[in-house]
Design goal:
This protein is mostly helical. The chain has 21 helices and two strands.
């Protein structure tokens, strides 16, 4: 890459800092992420053209030259396809009634015992966050928790249940490659397969889930039912739930179960399936979405309306900006700044990077952080097994548990808590969440250094 004057790099660095600050103040600005990123994208592209940093690319396809605008090559279309396909697939899957069926089944299995209910709901939160996404998981489980806990006459424990579930959404977001956007971005850049990601992340998720539920039960004083009278009353109350209420068609329900298992298997085996491995995870996500849409082929457009187009627009704009930052040598400068961390070695360096990623993710969107660090680490030719990749993955996900603005799922949880008319300020959330976040981060640092870094 040609030499970039230092003043130009500084200008682009200031714009990147301004973008991150604007995203952190998204609610104060009353602007959507896509609009914020779009605004900065327009400025960054114009400046890149003025300073001669970006030029259209011409690629020969089937013997014909095709000219791509400067903003096309920088977009990671694989990530966009995964998010779009998964969103549509999950939205159609929710119409089968499967997720509600699972939730109510577990509620009845608990027989109304608070501790057992917390364990079941905690496990369900982790699995739903991994298979769906943490926002959808929090909406489904949080809503059911409000109904269940109130019906079981345990309203005094509702806040504890909702907070534990909120904190577990980001733990569940670590379980698979497609559980959260930072996972997709970092995993794609590092070349980590779906199966490898799951194998490496699942032991930590199991331990962190158990520790979070245990700590939640202690801090919020959630105890087992004391006597037979309480157990009988709770069991009778739980028996009033009907798991089949949300199932409109048994045939579609079982079709959905089959498709969900097939989707997970296809994602896990994509790296070694003939023909499919060349097409990537994005192709699998889109394909399963299309198959599910066949059930609603005449009204498929209503599912397109449910897609978070603001999020997709945000990703596309962000990838374009990050690409321009690379051309302006901003990422090179940040990489130089990270050099002392990398020089600490594979024992201290990953721990520092994980803690720094978590701290930054707690106060601003973790997606720009993941995108920037993915570009920088990819330029260092680190192997997929490097603990530095995992430091960013763990830090970007778990940092969302420190403050209520650290992740979308914690924001949703706070909204549900306020809807239930429970008092919870910003400071109160941080005070309650810090012990959980500290425990999870200590476990993550130990796991990355001792297990993944060995």
């Amino acid at each position: 890459m040609h030499h970039v004057p230092v003043p130009v790099t500084i200008i682009f660095a200031i714009l990147l800092a301004a973008l991150i600050l604007s995203l952190a103040l998204e609610e104060k600005l009353h602007a959507k992420k896509s609009v914020i990123v779009g605004f900065y994208g327009v400025i960054v592209l114009l400046l890149a053209s003025v300073f001669g940093l970006a030029h259209p690319e011409t690629v020969e396809i089937l013997g014909h030259p095709v000219r791509f605008p400067v903003y096309v090559p920088g977009v990671d279309w694989e990530v966009v396809a995964i998010i779009l396909g998964s969103a549509v697939f999950v939205d159609v899957m929710s119409k089968t009634g499967l997720f509600t069926w699972i939730a109510i089944k577990l509620t009845k299995m608990s027989r109304g015992d608070p501790v057992r209910l917390l364990i079941f709901y905690g496990l369900m939160t982790v699995v739903f966050s991994a298979v769906l996404n943490n926002v959808t998981a929090m909406i489904i489980i949080g809503t059911l928790t409000m109904v269940s806990v109130t019906k079981l006459k345990r309203s005094n424990q509702l806040l504890g249940f909702l907070l534990v579930e909120a904190l577990l959404t980001n733990v569940g977001g670590l379980l698979t490659l497609i559980s959260s956007v930072p996972n997709i971005i970092i995993g794609n850049a590092a070349g980590i397969s779906f199966a490898t990601f799951f194998i490496n992340a699942s032991p930590y998720v199991v331990v962190a889930t158990a520790a979070t539920i245990w700590l939640g039960a202690r801090l919020f004083k959630i105890r087992p039912l004391a006597n037979d009278a309480e157990k009988t009353e709770a069991a009778e109350l739980v028996a009033g739930f009907d798991e089949n209420d949300g199932i409109s068609s048994p045939g579609f329900f079982w079709f959905g179960v089959t498709m969900l298992f097939a989707f997970i298997i296809a994602m896990a085996s994509a790296s070694f399936l003939p023909y499919v491995r060349e097409l990537g995870l994005g192709y699998i996500a889109i394909s399963f979405a299309v198959v599910m849409l066949l059930r609603y082929k005449a009204t498929a457009d209503r599912f397109y309306e449910a897609v978070d187009w603001d999020l997709l627009g945000f990703f596309i704009g962000l990838f374009i900006i990050i690409n321009m930052m690379e051309l302006a040598a901003v990422l090179t400068a940040i990489g130089v700044g990270l050099a002392p961390v990398l020089a600490m070695g594979d024992k201290v360096g990953p721990a520092v990077l994980l803690f720094a990623s978590a701290t930054i993710s707690s106060v601003t969107d973790n997606i720009p952080l993941a995108a920037v660090l993915a570009k920088i680490l990819a330029g260092m030719d680190l192997p997929a097994s490097s603990p530095y990749w995992w430091s960013v993955i763990f830090g970007a996900n778990l940092g969302g548990n420190i403050t209520p603005i650290g992740s979308a799922s914690t924001l949703v949880a706070v909204a549900i808590i306020h809807k239930a008319k429970l008092p919870l300020s910003f400071g109160a959330f941080v005070k309650v969440a810090v012990p959980f976040a500290a425990m999870q981060l200590v476990l993550a640092i130990a796991y990355v250094l001792l297990i993944l870094g060995s």
